[in-house]
């Protein structure tokens, strides 16, 4: 992972460095800000290579970004970008079609080599994730992929799937065992489904939806660990699929639904033991959804070859 922040540069030089070295040199865009506001400028970003794509998370105070025809000629990207808006919202304009706003929590997509202008809408500035996926790494090839002017996702059913994939991809960057390549391909094909280039019922469309629904199912499980009644029926209902379809999703994964629930509860209990060493183990077991302390001890010992108390006493790192 590569991280950079303007605090590494003298205040008087921060925006100029951001504009010339980071914006122009790394992202291939032109940054503009009134000279009298440059002394207060702040920006930071991280860049991670995952599954054949680049995942950028960017935070910055207000300024204007333009990807002009000359920028594109100087630094062609030949990629699809999927954006996740995390801040107060943003404005896009200057391209074919109408200007649009992207709200907090929303998603947009575009081809890198089409002109646009963008700026944050709120006083909080920019905060977004950008997944840049080279066209050559996407199995689907269609000339229309190069015509994707910036646009928000209009299908509301895709938003939770996109959010789950981004969340899992973020965890994959931190060492999770989740398959980053499958997540990147799913996000690419969800974008192409939204634009009508890939049919949802096609082989690649179905594969993308399966991957995204599996990610969403895992996120739902993680959010309901405390509920002892967490069961396939509840998760399937929230996904809008049948219980049979839910189990089919987990057939492609390393663990079944039941194994995933148990594994997540055990991992959560380990985190709580590390973070709250004074908390009673019985309380931790209950808060993680185990039906009884005896069940928790049995499952924990089977998974890690020791009792929870021994794990805590050893100050284990979880391995």
UniProtKB/TrEMBL annotation:
It holds the Pfam family HTH_18. Residues 215-314 form the HTH araC/xylS-type domain. InterPro entries: AraC_XylS_family_regulators, Homeodomain-like_sf, HTH_AraC, HTH_AraC-typ_CS. The keyword Cell inner membrane does not apply. Keywords: DNA-binding, Transcription, Transcription regulation. GO terms for molecular function: DNA-binding transcription factor activity; sequence-specific DNA binding. This is AraC family transcriptional regulator.
């Amino acid at each position: 992972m590569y991280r950079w922040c303007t605090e590494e540069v003298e205040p008087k030089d921060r925006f100029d460095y951001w504009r010339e070295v980071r914006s122009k040199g790394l992202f291939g865009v032109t940054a503009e800000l009134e000279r009298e506001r440059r002394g207060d400028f702040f920006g930071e970003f991280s860049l991670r290579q995952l599954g054949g794509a680049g995942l950028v998370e960017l935070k910055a105070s207000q300024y204007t970004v333009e990807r002009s025809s000359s920028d594109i000629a100087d630094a062609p990207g030949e990629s699809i970008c999927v954006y996740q808006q995390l801040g107060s919202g943003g404005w896009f304009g200057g391209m074919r079609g109408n200007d649009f706003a992207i709200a907090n929590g929303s998603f947009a997509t575009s081809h890198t080599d089409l002109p646009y202008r963008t700026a944050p809408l709120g006083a909080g500035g920019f905060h977004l994730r950008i997944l840049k996926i080279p066209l050559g790494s996407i199995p689907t090839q269609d000339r229309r992929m190069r015509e994707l002017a910036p646009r928000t996702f209009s299908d509301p059913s895709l938003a939770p799937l996109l959010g789950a994939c981004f969340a899992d991809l973020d965890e994959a960057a931190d060492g999770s065992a989740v398959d980053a390549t499958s997540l990147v391909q799913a996000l690419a094909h969800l974008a192409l489904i939204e634009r009508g280039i890939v049919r949802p019922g096609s082989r690649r469309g179905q594969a993308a939806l399966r991957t995204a629904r599996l990610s969403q199912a895992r996120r739902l499980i993680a959010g309901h660990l405390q509920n002892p009644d967490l069961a396939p029926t509840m998760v399937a209902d929230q996904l809008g699929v049948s219980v049979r379809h839910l189990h089919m999703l987990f057939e492609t994964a390393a663990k079944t639904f039941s194994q995933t629930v148990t594994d997540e509860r055990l991992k959560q209990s380990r985190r709580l033991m590390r973070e709250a060493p004074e908390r009673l183990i019985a309380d931790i077991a209950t808060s993680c959804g185990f039906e009884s302390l005896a069940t928790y001890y049995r499952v924990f010992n089977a998974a890690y070859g020791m009792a929870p108390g021994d794990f805590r006493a050893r100050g284990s790192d979880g391995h």
